[in-house]
Amino acid sequence: LKEMQRTERKRDVRKQIIYAFIITILIGIPIWWKTTEVYRSPLPHEDIASWKQNISIEENFHVKLEVLFIGEDENKLKEGISSLSKNLDSFKGTNEAKSILKVESSSLKVSDLSNQLKGLNDDEIDQWIRPKIKGEKNGKLTFVIFQSGNEEEQRNRLFFGKFRHGWSFQSSNSLNKSFYDRLNKAIKRYVVISSNLLDENTIVRPTTSYRLSFSLLNSNPKELSPSWDIERAIQLYLNPFLSEISSIAKFTVDSQVLHYTNLLKEPEKEKNSEGFFIPHHLLPQYLNPAEWKLDFVDTSTQPVLNFILFVPDAQKMPLRIKKNGNWTRTNAFISPQWGGIHIWNAPSNRRGKINLSVDDLHPVMEIFVSQLRTLLGVGSPSLPSKNAVVFLPNPSTGISLWEKDAVARRYLKNNRNSTAATLSSLSELVQNLTNMIVKDNIGQLCENSLRSLNLSQLALEDSDYDLALQYSKEAVDNAEEAFFDPNMLALLYFPNEHKAAVYALPFFTLFWQLFSGIRGEMKARKQKKEKKEKEERQKAIEEEEGEENNEEDIE
Questions:
Q1: Which of 13, 292, 343, 409 is surrounded by the fewest CB atoms within 10 Å?
Q2: In sequence order, what DSSP letters do the residues of 255-321 get, joined into one string?
Q3: What is the secondary structure of 333-398 as a DSSP string?
């Protein structure tokens, strides 16, 4: 009896242990799973996917063209507007350039026009026109047609000035389909600037900020040790240009002087005169920027544009660049997407320690500004024929307003496309890597980026490209900040594969003990049941035998 009681108590204890294991597992595993779960802030995946699928930037880049007829005769002005209405087909969009969607016309009567324009040069005419134009802004271009002047040379020219307008002198007879076709082609090809005119291998990738690095590289400081007043030169000659395009991107500037930077190989000696030259097509063999160790250490992600003033060894001066048998005019060249290099030859009477003053650096900075224009995609394309289209330079800032507008539209397009692509990549990354941490600031940055994109779209619909560009810069900055956030790279400390490796052994031991206990309990239950059935059968047999014995006694 005591043995049976002891066995029963063991079974009760085993049951309690098994129940405790089961309860622990049912409660502990969900708690463990929840406590090891990665926090993931919800992202607007549907809105991001919608932007990726539906963004269509070029269709929204409409440039309004206002054709303004200016003349002395009211009837001729009406004839001019009528001629434009009859030839509107000349301005319909094509696959080459769809920017100009709407052409408007207006007229202005000036009674003494001939006297007012008499003796004015092109720059003065450009200034004379500007006050006559209303609503000047990015996205609008005005072309003035003076119904005056009978010279054939004047009628064949199209002028584009420093602002957002152009002009031409035409008679009533010359306002025909041929003229409007030529005007349409010139505006779309040179002013609006179709993307196929840009050398994508030369210009730098559009972004919201750049670092400009100016370096003076000197070959032999023993004979010639130059210094330069680069800070004042930048203030005088570069800052006006940078201020004009500050709405497009942010620019930071630095400078340095390095000595003992030599050519990679000896230049060729000029046969018929003193000096040396480098063949233009072999420039990388002599001057390779990749071989120069520009010592700046920069941890930012800003693209760097380098501008090098190279001073050769005094024994190799003058050193010039020869192209097609002639000296190049600037003695400079561009390294695509990297920067520009200008070879400076010191005058023969200047040796030893010399200082390049602001005046000395004036032509150098003009070359650097021109190279920067080209790298940013502002460089003027070659013209179809001599004097057919005349562009007036803007020496005060280095860029005309219509040039700035064209670059702004290109950067606006790139910013919006880049934002949509970055957010889409981030969304796909988060959805594919389920163990990636997504903190609240990531979700907020994505929301801010989408909000800026929406505001940019609204500004585009109002043809306010400057405001749209500002919002697009905010959108791309927020998108890139979210994508490159350090927390995005910190995966779960115990991802699924690591969990299986770490917890496999203890969980195996735990479940083996539980399984063994359950199996022992089931075996004991089975044995108890069999014993009970055996006892019941034995009892039934004994009762049956007792009944048979009782029947025999009665008989």
A1: 13
A2: EEEEE----SSPPEEPSSSSSEEEEGGGHHHH--GGGS-------S---EEEEEEEE--GGG-SEEE
A3: EEETTTEEEEE-PPPTT--EEEEE-HHHHHHHHHHHHHHHHHHTT-PPPPPSSTTTEEE---TTTS
Question: pLDDT digit string (tens) for 379-436?
Answer: 665 555 555 888 888 888 989 998 888 888 888 888 988 999 999 988 888 888 777 7
If DSSP states are collapsed to H, E and C, what string results for 421-443? HHHHHHHHHHHHCCCECECHHHH
- Identify which of 145, 137, 29 has the alpha carbon closest to the alpha carbon of residue 76: 145
CA geometry: angle 333, 335, 338, nearest 5 deg: 135
Q: Is 212 within 8 Å of 253 (Cβ atoms)? A: yes
Closest to 310 (Cα-Cα) out of 338, 282, 340, 337: 340
Instruction: Look up residue 421 and give its amino acid.
Output: A
Across the beta sheet with 165-169, the strand order is: 103-109, 64-71, 140-146, 165-169, 158-160, 389-391
**Nearest CA-CA partner of 198 in 366, 386, 403:** 403
Query: Is residue 292 within 8 Å of residue 205, measured between CB atoms?
Result: no
d(CA 214, CA 111): 54
What are the beta bridge partners of residue 427?
none
Distance separating alpha carbons of residues 453 and 423, to the nearest angstrom: 11
Measured between alpha carbons, how far is residue 66 from residues 104, 142, 435, 466 in Å? 5, 5, 57, 19
pTM over 0.70: yes
Length of the chain: 555
Is residue 351 a contact partner of residue 226, using CB atoms and an 8 Å limit? no
What distance in Å separates the CA atoms of residue 470 and residue 475, rounded to the nearest whole number? 9
CA dist 313 and 216 (Å) reads 13
Query: What are 138-174's pLDDT values in tens digits?
Result: 778 899 999 875 455 466 789 998 999 999 998 888 8
Task: For residue 213, give Cα distances in angstroms to 254, 306, 526.
Answer: 5, 5, 87
Which residue in this structure is represented by tokens 């496309």? 417
